[in-house]
Structure prediction request, 358 residues.
Amino acid sequence: CHNMDPKLPFFHVEDLVMHLNHLYIYFLARQLTAQMMQNPQILAALQERLDDLVGTSTGYIESLPKVVKRRVNALKNLQVKCAQIEAKFYEEVHELERKYAALYQPLFDKRCDIINATYEPTEEECEWKVDDDEEISDEMKEKAKLEEEKKDEEKEDPKGIPEFWLTVFKNVDLLSDMQMEFVTLYLFALTTCAIRLNKCHFFTLEFHFEPNEYFTNELLTKTYKMRSEPDESDPFSFDGPEIMGCTGCQIDWKKGKNVTLKTIKKKQKHKGRGTVRTVTKTVPNDSFFNFFSPPEGNGGLLHTILTADFEIGHFLRERIIPRSVLYFTGEAIEDDDDDYDEEGEEADDEVSNFMASF
Prediction:
């Protein structure tokens, strides 16, 4: 049975039902995802349930003959040896990373000097070959040059690259949950970010600050501990180095300037007399600088929070700090957008195509 009205699109009822089901599941998944992001307890409970399901036996292995089980055990022992060899591979990779980090460092030092106006690049260093798709007409070039000269006349000559790291951080969606309004206020004093790779699979993120009105520290650090060998109790879970823990640092706040705390006033009514009094309390406040005070302990919710923390630390190390200029210009953001899950894109396309049929 299908629609015979020539003014309406042609479709089968079965196709309509199928698309409606897909549409319902799609929006239900979107809603569930939004709820989990707003309520970490839901995400922690779901993760705990999924962990319980991992490794659940189907009964097939138990049903195998004893002689076959012995051979399977031999294969598992071989797999453990493979994991041990893989661990040695990652040990050598880490040493290579440390070797090349020393080669990168002079370039990062010069980047810092240019940003903070302690070094002015030469004309040759400032030459940049424009791609074909970036080419513009001579007329547009002249117009842009005149506008740029006019702007330069209207304001003082800026030093270095103003608000470089502030712009980088603002451009990264992953950091949006770190209350970027505080970054807007306080990262003006951030002069550079750096990575230090330690010998024993530690890496430290360094944030260097110039003197400011909020804290006395010139350097804030966050150190991540990595594990690069299989866990003896669960060797088959080894999939390369993973972050096992992190430590922050103490921020020496100036009096009344601690942005990780806020003061709230609450009215309390006396049950017997009915009188009302105002109570002032100091409570934790969402802030970028909480990044330097990671939570401690165990539990599903804490595990979820630390997982997000580790993701941010890894992203800072692998992408943001080494490629900061591309996040400043927005070019790296376009590359990150290309990495979106294809399955999610297919779902979006399916919904768009379905809605376009009406």
Summary: Confidence is low (pLDDT under 50) at residues 1-9, 354-358. The first helix runs from residue 13 to 38.
